[in-house]
Amino acid sequence: QVQLVESGGGLVQPGGSLRLSCAASKNIFTLYVMGWYRQAPGKQRELVARITSGGNTNYADSVLGRFTISRDNAKNTVYLQMNSLKPEDTAVYYCKADRGFQTYWGQGTQVTVSS
Fold this sequence. Notes:
Blueprint: E1 4-7, E2 10-12, E3 18-24, E4 33-39, E5 46-51, E6 57-59, E7 67-72, E8 77-82, E9 91-98, E10 103-105, E11 109-113
Parallel strand pairs: 2-11
Antiparallel strand pairs: 1-3, 3-8, 4-5, 4-9, 5-6, 7-8, 9-10, 9-11
């Protein structure tokens, strides 16, 4: 069993930045694809960014150039650096660990972008 705990959400003005963290209860990065997803009210959950065990990354078009996913293997933590935030980035952000037949989700952290 793996526990994922997100933190770092909050209220930020448009154009501002936040860094989300996802702490895993054990070292899983060599086995799992780690991803950040988000879900806005009334919308489906969508992929924001992910990083493979080999370190390859990909991003949703809507965040490309503004968000960066990274990880610290020593701390078992994945980060999402979010810059130039827009009101449409407002959502609950979830961390996911996935290796196909086995998936874990965190509890989510709220990000609100508003003036």
